[in-house]
C-alpha cells in the first residue's frame, strides 16, 4: 500500500463527475453491531451486511476505507441525507469480519435497527487506518465528514440526492 499522510488531507475527493466504479448502489436491513460508534466515537454508524449486497457492489467496494454518498432510511424520517461510509475490518478494534457502516449526517429522533436503508456511494476518501488513540480516529472521522460535504456540494454529485433509486 502507498504511504498515506494524515497531516495533509485534501478537502475534496473525486473528479467533477463521479468516477468509475461509482455510483455504487447498496441496500439492506440495518443490523446491530457492537454499539461502539455512538458510545465511544460520538458517531453512530448504521451497519449493512456485506453478504446482502450485489456482486457489482461487492467488487466496487473491494478497496477498504472511507467512502461518501447519500443514504435514506425507510420510516418516520425518510429523507435523503449525505453520508460517510467505512468499509473494512476496523483494525483499531481488531474486528474479525468485514463491516459496511454508514454514518448519516442527520439528527434522527430515534434508532432505526431493522429498517431498510438504501445508499448511493459516489466517491472514495481514504484507506482504512489503524490508530494510536480513539482521539486520532475521531479527528479523522470529523475530517472525513467535512470532505464528504465538500465533495457532495458539486452539482454532478448533489443530483444523486433525487435519484429514482431513493423513491
Ligand atoms: P452498532 O454497532 O449497533 O451499529 P452504533 O453505535 O454504530 O451501533 O449505532 C448505530 C445505530 O444508531 C444505527 O443502527 C441507527 O439505528 C442509530 N442511528 C441514529 N442516528 C444515526 C445516524 N445519524 N447515522 C447512523 N446511525 C444512526
Ligand atoms: N475504523 C478503523 O479502524 N480505521 C479507520 O480508518 C476508520 N475510519 C472510519 C471512518 C468513518 C467515517 C467512520 C464512520 C468509521 C471509521 N472507522 C474506522 C470505524 C470505527 O472503528 C467504527 O465505526 C467503530 O468501530 C464502531 O463500529
Ligand atoms: Mg455501527
From TrEMBL:
* Membrane-spanning parts: none
The answer on whether this UniProt entry bears the keyword Transmembrane helix reads: no
Q: Has keyword Nucleotide-binding?
A: yes
Q: Which SMART domains match?
A: Flavokinase (SM00904)
| Riboflavin kinase domain segment(s) | 25-153
Pfam families xrefs: Flavokinase
Q: SUPFAM superfamilies given for it?
A: Riboflavin kinase-like
Instruction: State the residue spans of region: Disordered.
Output: 1-20
GO CC, any one term: mitochondrion
Q: Which GO terms describe its molecular function?
A: ATP binding; riboflavin kinase activity
Record pathway: Cofactor biosynthesis; FMN biosynthesis; FMN from riboflavin (ATP route): step 1/1
Instruction: Tell me which UniProt keywords the record has, alphabetically.
Output: ATP-binding, Flavoprotein, FMN, Kinase, Nucleotide-binding, Transferase
EC code(s) of this entry = 2.7.1.26
Q: Name one GO biological process term.
A: riboflavin biosynthetic process
Q: Which family does it belong to?
A: Belongs to the flavokinase family.
Physiological role: Catalyzes the phosphorylation of riboflavin (vitamin B2) to form flavin mononucleotide (FMN) coenzyme.
The protein, known as? Riboflavin kinase
Which organism is this entry from? Malassezia cuniculi
Amino acid at each position: 500500500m502507498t504511504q498515506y499522510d494524515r497531516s495533509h488531507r485534501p478537502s475534496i475527493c473525486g473528479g467533477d463527475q463521479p468516477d468509475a466504479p461509482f455510483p455504487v448502489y447498496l441496500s439492506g436491513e440495518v443490523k446491530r453491531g457492537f454499539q461502539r460508534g455512538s458510545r465511544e466515537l460520538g458517531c453512530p454508524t448504521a451497519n449493512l451486511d456485506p453478504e446482502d449486497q450485489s456482486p457489482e457492489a461487492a467488487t466496487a467496494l473491494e478497496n477498504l476505507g472511507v467512502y461518501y454518498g447519500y443514504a435514506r432510511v425507510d420510516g418516520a424520517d425518510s429523507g435523503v441525507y449525505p453520508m460517510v461510509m467505512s468499509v473494512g475490518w476496523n483494525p483499531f478494534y481488531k474486528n474479525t469480519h468485514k463491516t459496511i457502516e454508514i454514518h448519516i449526517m442527520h439528527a434522527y429522533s430515534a434508532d432505526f435497527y431493522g429498517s431498510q436503508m438504501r445508499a448511493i456511494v459516489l466517491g472514495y476518501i481514504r484507506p482504512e487506518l489503524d490508530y494510536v488513540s480513539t482521539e486520532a480516529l475521531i479527528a479523522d472521522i470529523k475530517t472525513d465528514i467535512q470532505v464528504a460535504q465538500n465533495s457532495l456540494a458539486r452539482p454532478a454529485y448533489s443530483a444523486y440526492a433525487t435519484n429514482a433509486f431513493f423513491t
